């Protein structure tokens, strides 16, 4: 047996450790993979994401073969191996690599015999057992509040959407139908272009030319709720990396794109430059910004629990108390954002969260203390009646459009100032 292993598998095990043992976000952890070739980096991220999506199933497959769960890294090697073996990975390569990754570490080398024995058993039984295991559930810290909000059938459907992952969604600068045709994608009823099996994004036609940008179908809705913004001054208060800024600029608005993070604002600049669109960039705190605009878009920082399809690391990182602080920040931002809207102007508030405390509740609170605000009916192509929230906003969920590949979870509401 050779003692070599695929750098992508080894990096995937490292990533799992950073997420599961050190509570790092997968994206943040992946920034440490710069020494890998781009293809290995992409493969490592895919393997880590697949393992995180299937973690509950992997643990259920492994349990009968372990007297007690081994230490973190050994367990992560086993989990990665279990998921690969269950989902079509070539047994010889997967088992050899997992054993060799263990052999290369001082603390794990002593466990290579166990890894070899367990994974060889799983190679035979895992593919069949995998199919009948239940869809992985969200952890209790998140499942409890979601069941309270949406009911257990809805949460089960959301979990199925999370487990399926997400297709690649694209917003076109000008002509969605033409971009859909050029990319061989589907044009969704809301105007987003969807590719089920995209491959490398930067290699797709029209990327270099800046004809489009990647943006989930749900994430494309808040800017649309602002209606016709041609020639209007629009403030995008939490703008980076800039998907909504690009939409507003493409729709002809005079956009001011503000963000607290200089590093993230640099991504807005890159995206504007690639697409040839224009916006005024401001590095600053939304809570301190002043001015008067025809329209304001507040896409506030949130738990991002609506994006679990694409970020399977999220449920495994206890957000706990952080969510309380985010809810307070969102309320303060919303209260300030409304002061930046001219009389007669509009504000759209949005969060990519599944928790009503980060969405519906803010609008309810706001309307209770601001009689000068009116909720506008969400109007844009493709909106389905089931998406309309009882409060009058728009509630999008990952289990919607399940026949089309789902969408991110989002809440958004459009307000008008008298
Ligand atoms: C949900 S993301 C925005 C996504 C963006 N609207 C888009 O469509 O690409 C939230 C953003 O809020 C920014 N942010 C957090 N606190 C802020 C603050 N106090 N002032 C301004 N921006 C802030 C973060 O840096 C982050 O880029």
TrEMBL record:
CDD domains: AdoMet_MTases. PROSITE patterns: SAM_MT_RSMB_NOP. One of its GO terms (biological process) is methylation. SUPFAM superfamilies: NusB-like, S-adenosyl-L-methionine-dependent methyltransferases. The active site is at 352 (nucleophile). Residues 130-418 form the SAM-dependent MTase RsmB/NOP-type domain. Pfam families: Methyltr_RsmB-F (PF01189), NusB (PF01029). Keywords: Methyltransferase, RNA-binding, S-adenosyl-L-methionine, Transferase. GO terms for molecular function: methyltransferase activity. S-adenosyl-L-methionine binds at residues 238-244, 259, 299. It comes from the Bacteria. Belongs to the class I-like SAM-binding methyltransferase superfamily. RsmB/NOP family. This is RsmB/NOP family class I SAM-dependent RNA methyltransferase.
């Amino acid at each position: 047996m050779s003692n070599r292993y695929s750098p992508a598998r080894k990096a995937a095990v490292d990533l799992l450790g950073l997420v599961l043992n050190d509570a790092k976000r997968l994206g943040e952890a992946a920034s440490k993979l710069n020494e890998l070739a781009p293809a290995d980096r992409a493969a490592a991220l895919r393997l880590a994401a697949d393992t995180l999506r299937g973690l509950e199933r992997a643990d259920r497959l492994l349990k009968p073969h372990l007297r007690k769960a081994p230490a973190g890294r050994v367990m992560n090697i086993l989990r990665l191996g279990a998921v690969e073996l269950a989902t079509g990975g070539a047994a010889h390569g997967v088992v050899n690599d997992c054993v060799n990754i263990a052999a290369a570490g001082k603390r794990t080398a002593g466990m290579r015999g166990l890894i070899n024995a367990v994974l060889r058993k799983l190679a035979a039984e895992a593919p069949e057992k995998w199919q009948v295991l239940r869809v992985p559930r969200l952890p209790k810290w998140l499942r409890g509040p979601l069941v309270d909000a949406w009911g257990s059938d809805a949460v089960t459907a959301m979990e199925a959407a999370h487990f399926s992952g997400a297709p690649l969604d694209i917003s076109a600068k000008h002509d969605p139908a033409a971009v859909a045709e050029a990319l061989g994608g589907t044009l969704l009823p809301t105007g987003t272009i969807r590719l089920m099996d995209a491959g490398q994004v930067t290699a797709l036609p029209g990327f270099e030319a800046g004809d489009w940008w990647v943006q989930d179908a749900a994430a494309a809705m808040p800017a649309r709720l602002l209606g016709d913004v041609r020639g209007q001054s629009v403030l995008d208060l939490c703008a980076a990396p800039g998907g909504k800024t690009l939409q507003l600029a493409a729709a002809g608005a005079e956009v001011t794109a503000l963000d607290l993070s200089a590093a993230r604002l640099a991504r807005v600049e890159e995206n504007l430059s690639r697409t040839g669109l224009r916006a005024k960039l401001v590095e600053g705190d939304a809570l301190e910004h002043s001015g008067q605009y025809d329209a304001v878009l507040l896409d506030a920082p949130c738990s991002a629990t609506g994006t679990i399809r694409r970020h399977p690391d999220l449920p495994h990182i206890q957000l706990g108390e952080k969510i309380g602080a985010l809810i307070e920040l969102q309320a303060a931002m919303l209260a300030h954002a409304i002061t930046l809207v001219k009389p007669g102007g509009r504000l759209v508030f949005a969060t990519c969260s599944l928790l009503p405390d980060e969405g519906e509740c803010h609008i309810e609170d706001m309307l209770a203390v601001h009689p000068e605000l009116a909720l506008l009916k969400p109007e844009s192509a493709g909106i389905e009646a089931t998406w309309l929230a009882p409060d009058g906003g728009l509630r999008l969920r990952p289990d919607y459009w399940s026949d089309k590949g789902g969408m991110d979870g989002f809440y958004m509401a459009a307000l008008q100032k008298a």
